[in-house]
Design brief:
Rossmann fold, elongated, 4-stranded antiparallel sheet, ATP binding, 22 helices, ATP-binding
């Protein structure tokens, strides 16, 4: 059995009753498919005046005699009706019998479809939930090398493909095969010779169809990868539209998109051609079988006279009844190939091991009491070391600033403190407890993060600010906005805190967005605040507003400030100067200026620039 198929089984467990009922109704559908065809026999015999006269009611003698009993009982009823009434009543009886069996056949088909619908939609929802949970839980490092579009394609397209294609497997193993089996058993009863003839053709058809389907799965994989690449291009184009336009790079992006679309077109055409071939090919092979049957069976009726004409017509309808499920099986087998390829891509993400998780008996730490200790840490993103033997102690209530040129490792400290990444060597401790021994939830609860890019969501100001505190009242939100120096512009908005700020907050200016990010951190009210270049993307006027907001926020709390602009951190209790992952100087602003070293140079350079 295919690995992807085995991995899907746990997702079907909550829907076991639906699977059971689907199988039961499919068995009944297959049974009534054959019975409905058999009921045509008495109709034809009444029409041709060939009905057997049975005047004595038959007696049921056991399961081995069920076929004979059923046949005799039906002819007994027809004989009774014909004796007492006109032939029309007998004809009406057999026609109603046909209608009833077809009604049951279609009712069971509907009920089977009803249960498989619940199974398909339920598994689709559960797969999507698992996929989204995984996407949210995976560490930041996972996305540094993956395309967002590819993840989205797996989440939306591939999961849908699993739903659409994969569950045809139930029909592949129950409904259609049983329809064929019941029809074949009945055909054996009508004529052994003819049925053996049919059985020679079925394996040949199956062999031809499986040859064509062979490389379909590999092509489906390629097509799904290309879809991911396509979504990536659209995502990057929308995110970077200003840059694309300002650099006149429209033609470059258009050609990338057009190339991808063309590759997808060729793959889709190739897959589609093979899929489209399934129906006509199986139909042609089926009709060839029927044509040979007509010739051979016609001989048995007309020349050898070993088969009744009415029985031969019913036999042909049963043979046609095999064709439809045979076509469905060949189509479903193509579908399952697509589904397997999609499932493989879905499970590729679901099975990624999340290296940054809480330990089994991790400590749920609620308070920060004394110190953050960073001890002898080494860290590299890939090959190049970003931090080398780095140590630092931050006492409760202190504001510690990390400064240095780009690439000196400042932001990496923020990534390691929040456990977006884990240190390669060394330890980070809070109140003497290694952060790896704390639950991730409690660690991040102790911290508020304000980044250089103010990440906001397409929602109201209230929803964005209350992200870390769901039950916040309007008054608490207004208070946080005041501390963040943001209420002065929010109060002038048409709907105040209920104003929608657009995609990524694009209805607001850079300074306004940053102040909302600060308000969000203020409302969360964590004991440790990490400010990662919170003002570097702002103009001077916005910076002044944000600087006031930051100073308000940092009062009475421990702050680690990663700063590019040195004017913002002159009041810090400790300034740590970094260069190539190491500390080169540390002290207060005046002490560092007096040293006339790296910090002094940086200050002079920035004074000169401004």
């Amino acid at each position: 059995m295919d690995k992807s198929l085995l991995k899907l089984i746990p997702y079907t467990k909550p829907y076991k009753s639906h699977i059971t009922w689907n199988i039961i109704y499919n068995i009944l559908y297959a049974l009534f498919s054959t019975i409905s065809m058999l009921t045509l026999l008495p109709v034809l015999e009444v029409l041709f005046g060939k009905t057997k006269k049975i005047l004595k009611e038959p007696v049921y003698t056991g399961i081995g005699d069920i076929k004979q009993f059923g046949s005799d009982f039906m002819y007994y009823k027809i004989s009774e009706l014909t004796k007492e009434n006109s032939i029309q009543v007998a004809l009406l009886f057999v026609v109603l019998m046909v209608i009833t069996t077809f009604l049951f056949k279609n009712l069971f088909n509907y009920l089977a479809s009803h249960h498989i619908m619940h199974l398909k939609n339920g598994v689709l929802r559960d797969l999507r939930k698992s996929m989204y949970n995984k996407i949210i839980e995976l560490p930041i490092s996972y996305y540094s090398e993956k395309r967002k579009g590819d993840i989205m394609a797996r989440m939306l397209g591939d999961v849908n493909e699993v739903q659409n294609s994969f569950f045809s497997i139930l029909e592949l193993v129950v409904k259609e095969p049983l329809t064929i089996v019941f029809a074949l058993v009945t055909m054996f009863f009508i004529s052994v010779k003819l049925t053996l003839f049919v059985l020679v053709f079925i394996p040949i058809s199956g062999l031809i169809i499986s040859k064509i389907a062979k490389n379909l799965r590999a092509q489906s994989m390629q097509a799904q990868k290309e879809s991911g690449f396509l979504i990536s291009i659209v995502d990057e184009s929308l995110s970077g539209l200003k840059v694309i336009k300002s650099y006149n790079a429209e033609s470059n992006f258009k050609s990338r998109f057009h190339d991808s679309v063309t590759r997808l077109l060729n793959l889709s055409n190739s897959i589609g051609s093979k899929n489209n071939l399934a129906t006509p090919l199986s139909e042609f092979l089926g009709i060839t079988t029927i044509a040979v049957l007509l010739f051979y069976g016609g001989n048995l009726v007309l020349v050898e006279k070993t088969l009744e004409g009415s029985a031969f017509i019913v036999y042909l309808t049963l043979a046609f009844n095999i064709l439809t499920p045979a076509k469905a099986i060949s189509k479903a087998s193509y579908s399952v190939k697509n589904g397997l390829a999609a499932a493989e891509r879905v499970f590729e993400v679901l099975e990624v091991e999340n290296e940054i998780t809480s330990k089994v008996n991790a400590i749920d730490k609620k308070t920060f009491d004394s110190t953050i200790t960073i001890q002898n840490i080494n860290f590299k993103y890939e090959d190049e070391a970003v931090l080398k033997d780095f140590s630092l102690e931050v006492k409760k209530g202190q504001t510690v600033a990390l400064v240095g040129q780009s690439g000196s490792g400042k932001s990496t400290i923020a990534n390691l403190l929040t456990r977006f990444y884990d240190v390669n060597e060394g330890t980070i401790q809070i109140d003497g407890i290694d952060i790896k021994d704390m639950t991730l939830h409690s660690l991040r609860d102790l911290m508020g993060l304000v980044t250089q890019d103010s990440i906001l969501f397409n929602d109201t100001i209230k929803a964005n600010i209350s992200l870390g505190k769901d039950n916040a009242t309007d008054e608490e939100i207004v208070e946080a906005l005041k501390i963040a120096n943001a209420f002065e512009f929010v109060k002038d908005l048409h709907l105040g805190i209920y104003t929608n700020i657009g995609d990524s907050g694009n209805k607001l200016s850079g300074g306004q967005k940053q102040r909302l990010s600060i308000a969000r951190a203020v409302l969360k009210n964590p004991p440790i605040m990490i400010l990662d270049e919170a003002t570097s993307a702002l103009d001077t006027e916005s910076e002044k507003f944000v600087q006031v907001a930051l100073e308000n926020m940092m009062q009475n709390r421990t702050s680690i400030v990663i700063a590019h602009r040195l004017s913002t951190i002159q009041k810090a209790d400790l300034i740590v100067v970094m260069k190539k992952g190491k500390i080169v100087e540390q002290g207060k602003h005046d002490e560092l200026i007096a040293m006339n070293g790296t910090y002094s140079k940086l200050v002079n350079m920035q004074s000169f620039e401004s």
